[in-house]
Amino acid sequence: MRHLxxxxxxxxxxxxxxxxxxxxxxxxxxxxxxKLRDTSGAQLQDADFRGRKVxxxxxxxxxxxxxxxxxxxxxxxxxxLVAGKGRQAExxxxxxxxxxxxxxxxxxxNLIAIATREVGGRGFVDLGxxxxxxxxxxxxxxxxxxxxxxxxxxxxxxxxxxxxKHTYTxxxxxxxxxxxxxxxxxxxxxxxLAGVSDRAYLVSMQHTSGGFAPxxxxxxxxxxxxxxxxxxxxxxxRISKAGSRPVIAAAGDTVxxxxxxxxNGVKARVSxxxxxxxxxxxxxxxxxxxxxxxxxxxxxxxxxxxRIVLAYALEGxxxxxxxxxxxxxYFATTNDDFVTRKRTRLSKDADDLAAGFVKVSGEPxxxxxxxxxxxxxxxxxx
Length: 382
What we know:
Elements: H1 8-11, E1 31-38, E2 43-50, E3 53-60, E4 63-69, E5 80-83, E6 87-94, E7 97-106, E8 109-118, E9 125-126, E10 130-132, E11 136-144, E12 147-156, E13 159-168, E14 179-183, E15 192-195, E16 199-206, E17 215-223, E18 231-240, E19 244-251, E20 254-260, E21 266-271, E22 282-283, E23 295-304, E24 307-317, E25 325-334, E26 342-348, E27 352-360, E28 363-372, E29 375-381
């Protein structure tokens, strides 16, 4: 899975301003909060939530770290180092195993790598992925059946290309075998991946024929059952002819994609037949409340049955003294593909946010990892 960092908005030149203070139109609710790390320089990278299992990864001076839980966040194991120089990390849990994709700059070149171990276990195993003397960046990882997919950006001929590779879950990646999916946008936003038992999905910002602005494009693969089952590429679908910063999630036959629209709002589309056909684009963020020229941006999305949760933020910088930047972080939850949705204000001026579901007393429950200041926290709805 991929969630998107607050700082990416600046690189897309979409930060505008707050003209009026904004209030949430829903209650904040009650949340159980667990502090995972409190140290200067800690930056949330990603989190994944799968049943009773949770993994939260962050970067701080000295390396890339992770903490995991096997009881839906009631308790967490001690932090463990993933990679001393790892950055741009994304995580995925499948079949009880944690996979962390990350980028590492080495003296002799650049590396995209995946480290894995059992959730609740100790000691990561390096599966490798790609070494290049050219720039590689922005990896993401997802499982589909017994296959492990990883996507990233790779500089080729002065342009970023979207690359993807797959192997059997738990197996090391072989040399070569990368597939070039086409030219990426010029904004440095990497691909986002999701997977279920027989499908893998990758969504990205890509330049398509006849368009100046990048489109939101979905790639799909069919994954057979069994360790030696074939993987078949099913082609592409343009989700939106313009947009940026896409996020994706899948569960069963449902696939949900959200992105930042060209008007700085957030839109989403949902498929219920594994990406073959799609419902209409729907605007998620409300426009009422005295908001002018502000940028809404998606952070992450998750699907559980008919429920979808989208974490997003309202961000901007004042054009008047003292020229301060601010943000408000929200959850939007829906049971009808965003025809209607409930908006919950979660935080203010957080640096990063990842959302999902955990299982508590047999029921799916909202959960999140939140980065605010020097503190990384796990949150679970009561």
